[in-house]
Amino acid sequence: LVSGSRSSKTFKPKKNIPEGSHQYELLKHAEATLGSGNLRQAVMLPEGEDLNEWIAVNTVDFFNQINMLYGTITEFCTEASCPVMSAGPRYEYHWADGTNIKKPIKCSAPKYIDYLMTWVQDQLDDETRVPFPKNFMSVAKTILKRLFRVYAHIYHQHFDSVMRLQEEAHLNTSFKHFIFFVQEFNLIDRRELAPLQELIEKLGSKDR
């Protein structure tokens, strides 16, 4: 029972973009171009569209995707199995949100991801409002940088579980889409991507 109640806690409700809104139309456009299979093209800013809006819509979409992917493996990501939030032996992440927790704290992966997803959700509630706040781009970059860490944790610590669940194709496609997107608009510092650098190069080389 315990794992069930915990996983539903980390599994945040899907963020919906209101139907009929311009952002909803953009999301539909993104989904349609994704279907073409050309991810490099799918991430490009559609002609005549606002960059902030395009980034906001895709960020919500990535939040929902990662939320779902992580939701499938929460039973394997526990205080006992993942006492620290890491991406392999060389990368460890400590949590701070700058408001409630100012000094970075060491915590388990499930706790870290719970903090992270709750924080992202709060930001998205603010950030997807139009007009966009002045600091929109820096907040979006922080959101994406942190969402990357969830991918990194899943790949490094739980890839065997992903394979057992036969979800690796889904994970790889989602991650590839995410990487092409952040590369297209230069949204995550290269240093931050280091834990998955080899994988990123491999995914990118297939599309040249």
Helix count, per DSSP? 8
Number of domains: 1
Number of DSSP strand runs: 2
Give the helix level as a range of percent. Answer: 55-70%
Task: Please describe what this structure looks like.
The protein is mostly helical. It has a single domain (57-205), classed as Butyryl-CoA Dehydrogenase, subunit A, domain 3. Helix content is 60%, strand content 2%. The protein is built from eight helices and two strands; from the N terminus they run H-H-H-H-E-E-H-H-H-H. It has helices at 2-10, 22-35, 39-42, 51-73, 109-127, 136-164, 168-184, 197-205, and strands at 85-86, 92-93. The protein has a two-stranded antiparallel sheet. Strand 1 (85-86) and strand 2 (92-93) form a beta hairpin. Residues 1-8 have low confidence and may be disordered.
Properties at a glance:
single chain, 208 residues, mainly alpha, Butyryl-CoA Dehydrogenase, subunit A, domain 3, globular
How would you summarize what this structure contains?
With 208 residues, this protein is mainly α. The protein has helices spanning 2-10, 22-35, 39-42, 51-73, 109-127, 136-164, 168-184, 197-205, and strands spanning 85-86, 92-93. Helices cover 60% and strands 2% of the residues.
Topology:
Layout: H1 2-10, H2 22-35, H3 39-42, H4 51-73, E1 85-86, E2 92-93, H5 109-127, H6 136-164, H7 168-184, H8 197-205
Antiparallel strand pairs: 1-2
Helix pairs in contact: 2-4, 4-5, 4-6, 4-7, 5-6, 6-7
